[in-house]
Amino acid sequence: MIPPVARRLLWIACCLFACGIRVHAQSRVAFAEYEIAGPCERIVLDAGLAGSTHVEGVLSAGESRRVVLPIPTSPGAPPLEPRVETSSGTAHFLGWLERDARLSQIPAALRARPVPLASAARVRVGVAVLCLLAVAGIAGLWCARWPFASLGLALVAATAIFVLARASLERDAAPVEVLDGIAGSGAWQRARAARDTLALPGRGPNFDLAVEPSRAPIRIEVPLDLARPTHASSKGAQLVAVWPEPWPAEALDRAANDLAPLSAVWVREAGDWTYRAAWPLRAPLGDAAPRPPAPGSDPPGWLVAGLPQGVTLLVGEVAGSPRSFVRCTYP
């Protein structure tokens, strides 16, 4: 069990980190319309220190297409027309596009909420690596009398361990998503966060993109095939995309859950948190239930840090999506 003092310090750290990202979460993307003409397979739009946009897809000679492309921008600076780099074909800049008006209609109270925090890399050492280490150690002791044999054994074992360890290095690429809302309002906001690489919600001007560190260069990959997703990447950085998402005003009413099945729910009323277990679709919100064993006894610290005080607050984990959450305030 984590001591109460340590838990409080951890909560404060999560709060400060989340608030720091929120303060600097200025959108780092603008949207431009281009006319691309073939023959070409790849076009790079170089935005300097802000990053670059890479357009991939085959256009034959005489074939052209108008596309909307997200272009990285520098913090606090107006968007600049990027430099076109291509070995064949052309890309003509047609102008910048205005942001979707629905982005401006997101309530300020939702904009002020802390963004999701993506997980860092996780290293998993498999059983095969441990067994190989044990066998190599025993064999090395046995071959200690023969230096060349020991050296050869060490090289073989080190190569095998490197291959196995590299294969067991897993980065949790699944993004973290939070759907934020206010009960009685149809204006909701979804935020998706990931480290290094993030699948964007689209390629049009209907989302904002923030990066931490705020000046990290961004690489955006846009396939001409509309069926394939657009990705933004920035090595070692956290990327957060935010966009409006319409839902009925009573989607998460206490009398009936019309939003999504929730596998775990926590409610804060009068400053106290209570655990409400699962909340199925079409069902009313349940009463307080016994808390599950740790570590699921409390909501993630970053999820509740920096949220408004003095109001009833509900947070829940979406069933079947362990990295997808919902936050809703009630007047």
Write down the overall geometry. Answer: flat
Briefly note the structural class of the backbone.
alpha+beta
Number of helices: 6
Mind telling me the C-alpha Rg?
25 Å
Unreliable stretches covering 5 or more consecutive residues: 4-24, 168-172
Task: Please estimate the helix content.
Answer: 10-25%
Largest sheet: 12 strands, mixed
- Identify the quaternary structure here: single chain
Distance between the termini: 34 Å
Count every beta strand, where a strand is a DSSP E run of 2 or more residues.
19
**Element string (H = helix, E = strand):** HEEEEEEHHEHHEEEEEEEEEEHEE
Strand content: 35-45%
Report the mean per-residue pLDDT as an integer: 83
Can you offer a commentary on this structure?
The chain is of the alpha+beta class and 331 residues long. It has a domain at 123-170. The chain is built from six helices and 19 strands. It has helices at residues 4-23, 101-104, 108-111, 127-142, 147-168, 301-304, and strands at residues 29-37, 40-46, 51-59, 64-72, 83-85, 90-96, 122-123, 169-170, 176-182, 187-199, 208-212, 218-223, 231-246, 252-253, 256-257, 262-269, 272-279, 312-318, 324-330. Strands 2, 3, 5, 9, 10, 11, 12, 13, 16, 17, 18 and 19 form a twelve-stranded mixed sheet that branches. Strand 16 (262-269) and strand 17 form a beta hairpin. The chain starts with a helix and ends with a strand. Mean pLDDT is 83; it is low at 4-24 and 168-172.
